[in-house]
């Protein structure tokens, strides 16, 4: 079954420290993966997608097909990065399946 | 440009009552979705509509029905609410082309079933 796993429900790091949010997936075909973010009192929104190969707000994510992972990384965390992060996998032509989410807290 | 609009934002129901969550998008998107968000469970797809006139079940469709009224509107109905349906519900939409599978979400509807 196609599945997305985010092993950490909660992650707390200090400002300026590196941050890595883990995402593992199971998918038999060619995966298309996304990271969505929900800041406090804001709507859930796309952060980045692997096919874009871009850095958004200092975050990057590399698709590792060998390890079936799509971890989200940022070298220096900022307080405004505190949010709920969801990894998502395209399932079929029109559906996304989401992971359980990781709540990231950046401590000052 | 409103994007995706959901109503109501909050609702409290008693077990067995029915209600409909409304969703409308003004981006001319073909696909629309209903998700529920529960602590520790992430976002789970209830139903989706790939295009006007079609609807399909997601991961957790039991206890829900949907209607794709037209291209803009996609409603979610609870015929007989149960406490297990206490959740935050999100409507989303997506377009085609490079925007395919890039979801635009509504603000959410918090439902409590007593």
Taking pLDDT < 50 over at least 5 consecutive residues as the criterion, the unreliable ranges of chain B are: none
The biggest sheet of chain A amounts to:
6 strands, mixed
Query: Runs of chain A with pLDDT <50, length 5+?
Result: none
Number of distinct helices of chain B: 0
Oligomer state equals heterodimer
Q: Overall mean pLDDT score of chain A?
A: 92
Task: List SSEs of chain B in N-to-C order.
Answer: EEEEEEEEEEE
Indicate the overall shape of chain B.
globular
- Terminal CA distance of chain A: 40 Å
Q: Give the class of chain A from helix and strand content and strand pairing.
A: mainly beta
**Which class of secondary structure composition applies to the elements of chain B?**
mainly beta
The largest contact between protein chains, plus residue counts on each side, is: A-B, 21 and 24 residues
Let me know the number of strands of chain A: 11
Biggest sheet layout of chain B: 7 strands, mixed
Radius of gyration of chain A (CA) equals 13 Å
Find the count of extended strands of chain B (DSSP E, 2+ residues): 11
Number of helices of chain A: 0
Radius of gyration of chain B: 13 Å
Question: Could you explain the architecture of this structure?
Answer:
The complex is a heterodimer of chains A (108) and B (114). By secondary structure, chain A is mainly β. Chain A contains no helices and 11 strands. Chain A has strands spanning 3-5, 10-14, 19-21, 24-26, 33-38, 45-49, 60-61, 72-74, 83-91, 95-98, 102-107. In chain A, the strands form 3 sheets. In chain A, strands 2, 5, 6, 9, 10 and 11 form a 6-stranded mixed beta sheet that branches. A 3-stranded antiparallel beta sheet of chain A has the order 3-8-7, with no helix packed on it. Chain A is globular, with a radius of gyration of 13 Å. Chain B is an all-beta fold and 114 residues long. Helix content of chain B is 0%, strand content 51%. Chain B has no helices and 11 strands. The termini of chain B are far apart. The model of chain B has no long low-confidence stretch (mean pLDDT 93).
């Amino acid at each position: 079954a196609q599945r997305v796993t985010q092993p950490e429900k909660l992650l707390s790091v200090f400002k300026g420290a590196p941050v890595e949010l883990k995402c593992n997936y199971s998918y038999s075909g060619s995966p298309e993966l996304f990271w969505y973010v929900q800041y406090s009192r804001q709507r859930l929104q796309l952060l980045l997608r692997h096919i874009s190969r871009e850095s958004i707000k200092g975050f990057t994510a590399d698709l590792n097909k060998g390890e079936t992972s799509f971890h989200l990384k940022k070298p220096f965390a900022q307080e405004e990065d505190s949010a709920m992060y969801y990894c998502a996998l395209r399932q079929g032509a029109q559906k996304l399946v989401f992971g359980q989410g990781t709540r990231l807290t950046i401590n000052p | 440009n409103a994007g995706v609009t959901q109503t109501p934002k909050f609702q409290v129901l008693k077990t067995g009552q029915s209600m409909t969550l409304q969703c409308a998008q003004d981006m001319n998107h073909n696909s629309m979705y209903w998700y529920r968000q529960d602590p520790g469970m992430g976002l789970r797809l209830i139903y989706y509509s790939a295009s006007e006139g079609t609807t399909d079940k997601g991961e957790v469709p039991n206890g829900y029905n949907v209607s794709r009224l037209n291209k803009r509107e996609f409603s979610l109905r609870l015929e007989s609410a149960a406490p297990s349906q206490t959740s935050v519900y999100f409507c989303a939409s997506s377009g085609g082309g490079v925007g395919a599978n890039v979801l635009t979400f509504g603000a959410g509807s918090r439902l409590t079933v007593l």
